[in-house]
Amino acid sequence: MNLHLIDILIIIGYLLGTIAIGFYLSKKASKSINAYFLGGKKISWWVLGVSNASGMFDIAGTMWLVSMCFVYGMKSAWLPWVWPIFNQVFLMVYLSAWLRRSNVMTGAEWLRTRFGDGRGTELCHIAVVFFAVVSAIGFISYAFIGIGKFAVVFFPWDLSPNTYALLIFFFTTLYVVKGGMYSVVFTELLQFVIMTIAAISVGIISMNMVSAEALDAVTPDGWNELFFGWQLELDWTGVIDSVNQKIYQDGFGLFGFFFMMMVFKGVLSSLAGPVPNYDMQRILATKSPKDAAKMSAIVSLVMFFPRYMMVAGLSVLALVYMGPKIQTNNAIFDFEQILPFAISELMPVGLAGLLIAGLLAAFMSTYAAAVNAAPAYIVNDIYKKHINPNADNRTYIQMSYLVTTLLVVVGIGVGLLISSINDIMQWIFGALFGGYAAANILKWHWWRFNAYGYFYGLVAGLLAALLLPLLFPELQPLYAFPFLFLAGLIGSISGTLLTPAEKDEVLIAFYQQVRPWGWWSPIRKKVKQRNPTFVQKSHFQRDVSNVVVGIVWQLTLVVIPIYLVIREFHAMSIAISLLAFTSFILKKNWYDKLEN
């Protein structure tokens, strides 16, 4: 693509601006390890929420969403449940508040509040640090693949995707290493503004360029329908024949079964709470449990409308202007390239530069968030705790620089070995997070669960997740989730029942501080014996009802912009009414009852 000078200047201006912010904030970040990784817990909840939304607005994920919307139409609104996106609802309703009450820096450090001190807790620390590092490397390689595929289409120099990815990684790593969380959060605010303007502009352009009749002519029956039966029933024969092969390769033909697996896996993964990545880091960085809950809510509120305006807009433009060419050529097509090709062929001067800058911002947000979160586990939970506990802040900050750089290098190495965004995305969210679920559900909800159970459960789940792509390379990771969950569950229960329970003092302190619901009856009785005035404040029925309402609320935020772009105004009006109704319920039954 030959970029216009205006587009090039926009992109260069954006890159220089982000680096300038990182260096400007580096003085604040270097005050302490807490300031470097959590912003000193002084950043406003809405800033952290927008930052978190920006970090989730990633380029590789957006490329995947565009390819899914192109192929599956309205039914693609369900597919992010494989991650699952509705984990943000569980966090919003109760889990963010539970986590924030610990007042710690990392998920590994949080384990001390649940299990106390001891050999078992030390083993848990090591397992969680290992998971955090492995998942960060997965995210880095995921971003590496996405940015390389994206950049090679747009930039005029004759370089390989990997070379482009290395150059962009260099710029991003520079400001992340220098400015820590302050740099990440405040550059993400800038990035979110750019992405929102670009995304909404794409949706408007699509609506101006493509009529409803033109879209109907290039899509099969059922493409614009949200709901489905047991079979997918999307037949692209005679429209774009190669899409049928894509659906077969994805394994989504039995869409009803696939949907049930997404719900099963999604609910269990959500009950486990946030994995030790940037999502957890932003929860721990809030000022209070109430702010943590509001921060998780704003992620869904601000992210979905602009993101899905872009996703739907680019998909519609690609269907109308690229679809006939794909059908005529009758060749193997990389559907993950739809997004960059649509921008390069269909965007006007100025907006193309803004959109490329916005998608670079999306990449940099996700990458920066992952890179900033993982080193905290190594520096705080390994280096500071076991190797050099009495060092000064300067030493810890320098160690953070080193660890960050090493993680990036390893992530790039993994990225060089993987060719498909979908492959790494399915492995991270389907397999790796599946191995994490069992132990982390039990830590919240079962009083007898102990540190050894957590360690053996997490190790069993992670080993199963790491071995899965080696032993069964053709297996869809989502369909493997029950086996991964079962491996983690067996390890968790066996490790727990074969070792003593945690001390009453630890369990009583945890229950009084966090107030979880679940199987806590023996500890609740002991708390009441010691403190007859203690009032149980766990709200199981209210939380469950708010989660159900919240998932419907979140889904409306996804489908409204898609309906708008494809001009399904009747369905959009129903979704808007449902959004208003669920918002009213959440205001009365969740927001008004948040505790200070």
Automatic annotation (TrEMBL):
Membrane topology qualifier: Multi-pass membrane protein
Protein's cellular compartments: Cell membrane
Pfam families xrefs: SSF
Keyword vocabulary terms for this entry: Cell membrane, Ion transport, Membrane, Sodium, Sodium transport, Symport, Transmembrane, Transmembrane helix, Transport
Superkingdom: Bacteria
GO MF term set: L-proline transmembrane transporter activity; proline:sodium symporter activity
An annotated GO BP: proline transport
Family of the protein in this entry: Belongs to the sodium:solute symporter (SSF) (TC 2.A.21) family.
Listed name of the protein: Sodium:solute symporter
Protein's organism: Thalassotalea marina
